[in-house]
Amino acid sequence: MQGSSSTNNNILTVEHLTMRFGGLVAINDLSFAAKRGEITALIGPNGAGKTTVFNCITGFYKPTEGMITLHESSGKTHLLERMPDFQITAKAKVARTFQNIRLFSGMTVLENLLVAQHNKLMRASGFTILGLLGLKTYKEASRNSIELARHWLEKADLLQRADDPAGDLPYGAQRRLEIARAMCTGPELLCLDEPAAGLNPRESAALNKLLLDIRQDTGTSTLLIEHDMSVVMEISDHVVVLEYGQKISDGNPDFVKNDPKVIAAYLGVEDEDEIDIPVIREDLKAVGKGKKGEAR
Amino acid sequence: MASNNTRPDAPLPANQSADYGYALKEAMYAGLITLGMFVLFIGLKTDQNIRNELILVPRWGLLAIFVIIAAVGRFAYIAWLGPAMASGKAAKSRKVVSTEKSFLAQHWTKLAIVFLFLYPALVGGSLKWVDNFGIQILIYVMLAWGLNIVVGLAGLLDLGYVAFYAVGAYSYALLSEHLGLSFWLLLPMAGILSAMWGIILGFPVLRLRGDYLAIVTLAFGEIIRLVLINWTEVTKGTFGISSIKKADFFGWFTFNIADPNYIGKVFDIAPSGTYYKIFLYYLILLLALLTAFVTLRLRKMPIGRAWEALREDEVACRSLGINTTNTKLTAFATGAMFGGFAGSFFAARQGFVSPESFIFLESAVILAIVVLGGMGSLTGIAIAAVVMIGGTEILRELTFLKAIFGEGFTPELYRMLLFGVAMVMVMIWKPRGFVGNRTPTAFLFERKEVSGSFTTEGHG
Amino acid sequence: MEYFVQQLVNGLTLGSIYGLIAIGYTMVYGIIGMINFAHGDIFMLGGFSALIAFLVLTSFWAGIPVVLALLIMMLVGMLTCGLWNWTIERVAYRPLRGSFRLAPLITAIGMSIALSNFVQVSQGPRNKPIPPLVQQNFEVFGINISLKQIVIVVITTVLLAIFWYIVNKTPLGRAQRACEQDRKMAALLGVDVDRTISITFVMGAALAAVAGTMFLMYYGVVVFTDGFVPGVKAFTAAVLGGIGSLPGAVIGGLLIGVIESLWSAYFSIDYKDVATFSILALVLIFKPTGVLGRPEIEKV
Q1: Closest Cα partner for B152 from B292, B322, B250?
Q2: Are residues B164 and B25 in the same domain?
Q3: Do both B50 and B177 map to the same domain?
Q4: Number of DSSP helices (H) and strands (E) in chain B, helices first
Q5: CB-based contact B454 A167, cutoff 8 Å
Q6: What ipTM was reported for this prediction?
Q7: pLDDT mean over B37-53
């Protein structure tokens, strides 16, 4: 559906990606591209393989087959499936967040953002040795990194909480902090795994604003997994729909919204629902039994 | 002796008032359980007679004392102590903690350092207090601060730390014996060698999770000790290496009475062994302070922050572009290096090294000090070292106990027993150690302590 | 060839003892995810209980039949160690359940130090020898098999059968397996988790006590430091077999026993513990799930 526009315009191309866990095929021959400066959303029902795609892009899983290419704005390209995970962030400038937030909860909000600037600071400190001797360049870099952290704290509306432990923040603030932390690595592609999950409408709005700000101010491209359709439809420029590890639709939000295949996958008008619903009934029954057992 | 920790700790009864019937029942159970546990081990003692056969010597009186202590203790706990503690806790939670810090609290690090420098003078140069307490405790403080980098900051559970201590000690012993180099040259060399071993041993195990890492490091520690025992051509096996050269004062004067520049001759003072002890005291004090200084400095550097981040969440670290392998290795190597420094100090102090000094128990003691002190907190660790090492050392001094328990009573025998019991009790009382709070390494507006309940314990 | 088989037999005997101890490690690890470092010392306590029971028995009834004496020694050891481990779990480990991850491990190490030093203080630091209990030897195809070895292997097999039955066929075993999978859910479904964990500790201790009795019978001597090295080896066995897996623990124990005796026979007796520790390190590094363990997928 998506026209094969010139590759220069794409920041990320995923080609024929397949991921198997033993006999289970989590992703099957998936190809899509994300355009530079756009917010691309990856949606699909539970278990469609969205997070697996993310894990392949960010190097936490090694894909069974396929090619993932990142095109930096400088013209450099990186084959992500061949790189170790930390290098994908350090070299290819891809940053990510996690579905179940992974903050350094015992460190303060500010420290979280400083850890994200590790590589830059390591170089500035002469890999610790020069910094240990109290060299000027490190002090300067250290001040700059705090300024960058302050910038993102303002954007994420967390400035007042800068010196509190990250684990002490409310849920929505933790989500924003995780995004701010990812931005502190200076990414070209930001991968967000369900950033709006569990947020109330106000927090959700604050998140949308942060994401739009990121796109506007930094030109960072965003790849987004999301369940919340209001977020997807409101902010994304391009939507890829997955089901059972395969792409079923790909296009702008309006196109996807009206694609019969997508409607079928989400609302279940085809014969799948007849398979699904009895299973759910069984599950419900089991839960009911468990509750009774507990009451006794 | 150990009766207090044998009481089963049932949850408090719901009602706060004393319930004597319940307490009586619990006391009876406690007595019975104690009886069952100790009837064989306390009630009967195996002794050898003249023909070298084992015979049993009954000690029913002692057993009865144990059972009674357990039962009475349990009764008191349930009937009075438990409710009192519960109401005390409630009162405490209502009390507002004042944020004003006293002068002592604000400046106590400086005061402590001044005290430590004056300490030999304060105890009048008494060998016992400088050597058995001062030097002994400071060695453990330094070792624990070194291990703290690995366990407390990076969250890598290392049960074989004593191996690096051994590498340092043997490097000093062997190199000074064969090459005749001076202490001041060998000290950094021992540190570098230990750091190298840290990397060699660290490299294969870095993929492992917490408990497994602990066991592998334990295995490495034991392997190094067994090699030291069995590689007799080099290490002289269990006999150890003796008459190791003493440290000197940068070549200016030495502490060896036969040398032409012996301190007594240089300053024209009466020869005495005390000078060396006092010199060693200041040496280990400076080494320990160096460890603390480097640790504090590193914490504010990217590498130190990466260590702490690693302890909190390794996956998140990788997602931020941190090379976790290198980060872990530097933690391992830095910790090992300080272990090596301490080891070469140990060899110079004792003049003798043997594998006996590097058993697993030492690793366990050092780790215990780190955890009991509160992982990552230098102050807490120093307190834990003073309490645990000083506390067990002081047992030797308690000669008045002989008056109570009879002439044959040797308090030293109970040292490790009490150490073990104290470890268990402190952990139950304060699972996060004496100082559970963490001081942030950077701040925008004000530095607020991070409560221990937020810190996670790492995955590596 | 005969020499080899001879060493194999010796190794299997030793391995049976390791296997019995390893079950305690593996069960406790499976159910609460903790390395019960003091388990080796429980084994040592078992050896001492058996020793003292033996001395009591012979002082009352000099001509007691060996089978009866062994049975009583085992029973006394099982009861004593079961009680000890129950109390230890109750007093030292339970308050720390769900606490900071290192706390239980440190407590267990402290407990291990306390236990071995308690025995040193209460029973003296010397080796405690007993006269040989079982002395017959058999020649089978040129291999020398002692009755002791047969007793050890038979008792181990019988105990494992009983144990297997308990874990797989009884409600208690089901509760244990449920707690292993998901403690919170098991509690919600009405499993008394605390009781199940207590029983697990008691069962592990009972098996360790039997191992202690066998150890005393086999070597004829026990000393207060005997908990550490066999403890670490048994832990190695548990890891080698795949921690959490009961058959794995036994297989691991046998493997460690065989490797140890073959290594001593063919290479160097001095380095036999180095061999064991190296195996531990190698297995953990290259195959941390062991022979029969379940693989773990890193969840991101």
Answers
A1: B292
A2: no
A3: no
A4: 20, 4
A5: yes
A6: 0.85
A7: 81
Does B392 fall in a domain? no
Contacts with B, A 114-143, CB within 8 Å: 114-119, 121-122, 125, 127-128, 131-132, 138
Contacts with C, B 202-261, CB within 8 Å = 204-205, 207-212, 214-216, 218-220, 222-223, 226-227, 229-230
On the question of pLDDT at B53 being above 80, the answer is: no
* Chain A residues within 8 A of C190 when measuring between CB atoms: 293-294, 296
Q: What is residue A281's predicted lDDT score, i.e. its pLDDT?
A: 47
Give residues 61 to 90 of A whose Cβ lies within 8 Å of B.
Answer: 85-90
Residue B100 lies in a domain: no
C182 in A contact zone (CB under 8 Å)? no
User: Tens of pLDDT along B194-236?
Assistant: 999 999 888 887 777 767 788 888 888 888 888 888 888 888 8
CATH 1.10.3470 fits C2-286, yes or no: yes
Domain assignments of chain C as residue spans, ordered by start: 2-286
- Position B93 confidence tier, pLDDT thresholds 50, 70, 90: low
**Sequence-separated (6 or more) residues with CB below 8 Å from residue A126:** A135, A137, A138
**Contact status of B121 with chain A (Cβ, < 8 Å):** no
Last residue of a domain, one of B375, B399, B432: B375
Q: Residue B140: its pLDDT value, please?
A: 92
CATH 3.40.50.300 fits A1-93+187-258, yes or no: yes
Q: Please give the residue that has the higher pLDDT: either B456 or B378.
A: B378
Residues 186 to 215 of C: which have CB under 8 A from any A CB? 188-190
**Which residues 112-141 of C are in CB contact (within 8 Å) with B?**
112-115, 117-124, 126, 128-130
The verdict on A192 touching B (C-beta cutoff 8 Å) is no
Q: In terms of domains, do B294 and B242 share one?
A: yes
C216, two tokens: 């005393």
Task: Please write the tens of the pLDDT for every residue from B105-137.
Answer: 667 778 888 888 877 777 776 777 877 788 889
Q: Note whether A60 contacts C297, CB cutoff 8 Å.
A: no
Classify residue B419: in a domain, yes or no: no
Contact C112 B420 (CB under 8 A): yes
- Residue-wise pLDDT for C65-88, tens only, equals 888 888 999 999 999 999 999 999
**Contact flag B305-A115 (C-beta cutoff 8 Å):** yes
Q: Cα-flanking dihedrals φ and ψ of residue A27, to 5°?
A: -130, 135
- How many domains are contained in chain B? 2
Report whether B354 contacts B239 (CB < 8 A). Answer: yes
DSSP secondary structure letters along C253-299: HHHHHHHHHHHHHHT-STTHHHHHHHHHHHHHHH-TTTTTPPP-PPP
User: Among B41, B232, B356, B372, which would you mutate to test the C interface (most chain C Cβ atoms within 10 Å of its Cβ)?
Assistant: B41
C184 touches chain A (CB under 8 A): no
Portion of chain C with pLDDT greater than 70, in percent: 96
Calculate how close chain C gets to B2, using CA atoms only, in Å. 8
Note down the domain range covering B73.
Answer: 3-90
B356, B375, B394 - which closes a domain? B375
> What tens digit of pLDDT does each residue of B236-256 get?
877 888 777 777 777 677 777
Measured CA to CA, the distance from residue C298 to residue B292 in angstroms comes to: 36
Give whole-number Cα distances, A29 to A17, A81, A256, in Å: 5, 15, 20
**Whether pLDDT at A46 is above 90:** no
Cβ contact (<8 Å) for A294 and C190?
Answer: yes
Task: Kindly give, in sequence order, each residue whose CB lies less than 8 Å from that of residue A123, ignoring residues fewer than 6 positions away.
Answer: none
Cα radius of gyration (chain C): 19
Tokens, residue C129 = 């020898």
Is C79 in the B-facing interface, judged by CB distances under 8 Å? yes
3 state SS of A241: strand
Q: Is residue B110 part of a domain?
A: no
pLDDT per position as a tens digit, C233-282? 898 888 888 877 888 888 989 998 998 888 888 887 778 888 888 888 88
Chain A residues whose CB is inside 8 A of the C188 CB are 290, 293-294
Would an 8 Å CB–CB cutoff place B456 in contact with chain A?
yes
CB B234 within 8 Å of CB B376:
no
